[in-house]
Amino acid sequence: MTISVPATSANLGPGFDTLGLAVDLRNRVEFHPSKFFSVSIKGEGENNPRLKGNNLFISIFNEHYSRLTKNKQNFKFTFYNQIPMSRGLGSSSAVIVSAIASAHEAAGIRVSKRRILNHALVYESHPDNITPAVMGGFNAATIEKNKVFSQKKHLPDYLKAVVVIPNKQMNTSKSRTVLPKSYSKENAVYNLSHTALTVAAFFNEDWEMLKLAAQDRFHQKARMKTLPELFSVQKVAYESGALMSTLSGSGSTFFSLVYDDDSAMIANRMKQKFPDFGVKVLDFDNDGLIIER
Ligand SMILES: Nc1ncnc2c1ncn2[C@@H]1O[C@H](COP(=O)(O)OP(=O)(O)OP(=O)(O)O)[C@@H](O)[C@H]1O
Ligand SMILES: N[C@@H](CCO)C(=O)O
């Protein structure tokens, strides 16, 4: 069995803990029952000995597998990881979603994507990464009574993501500690109105509106100050024609949405200006979680 889940870019400027979209960079896991437990990792994390044992995937998988089957069974897992860890591209969401989906598949139980999403909320309390990880596309999401309610918009092929990935990791829980404890009414209204406009622009495909709409007063500045080159990344992105350019999740990656025709030029400019950072041009992903039986 093979399960794969895409990387995600959350917040998208003002939509803190609310908006996110999926990009075509996937973590894939293959597994089958085995006499002995084993983990093999290829790609991101392959040199990290901590991931060879009871990592986040394994603990969530075991929790769900034993809840569903009441059995103890060893599995051989092979992970093919493309999503860099703690860089704001939803690596934890991908792991959480794939572990829950894998446990259900291993137990022979078919569940809806919505059910998997609601289980994922137990491990990540904000829905902005887990929703596009499961559903694909652009999503606005909220939580009511421990359930995720969301709306999805397919993203067209003529748009691409240019992601600039610094070497520096930014752990999400640590990165949340630098945020203000409260916001003024003025700033709350600012983010509310800009989030509403961002959502409307995505659904109406008014891409030229995004630069204005995707401005934020809640989290980006405080986080970007911990890696000030990110201010220059955003400036170069906009000077080069990006339609929107925002801190991806809690950072450190910077996400730009661009027209396909501009993507190579913008990526090359980023590579020239920021030679120490990784730069990728990615398609958007409209599939989310994929289960291959
Ligand atoms: N491939 C993986 N295998 C096992 N655990 C992983 C893997 N990828 C990420 N994790 C776990 O998720 C943690 C990273 O989560 P964190 O929320 O800090 O980053 P992120 O999800 O990449 O960023 P963001 O939520 O801002 O998009 C890692 O420390 C590790 O515990
Ligand atoms: N909304 C989350 C995304 C990162 O997981 C945050 O900004 O902390």
TrEMBL record:
Its main location: cytoplasm. It holds the Pfam family GHMP_kinases_C. It comes from the Bacteria. It is found in: Cytoplasm. The keyword Transferase applies. GO terms for molecular function: ATP binding; homoserine kinase activity. Pathway: Amino-acid biosynthesis; L-threonine biosynthesis; L-threonine from L-aspartate: step 4/5. NCBIfam families: thrB. This is Homoserine kinase. It comes from Sulfurimonas autotrophica (strain ATCC BAA-671 / DSM 16294 / JCM 11897 / OK10). The gene is thrB.
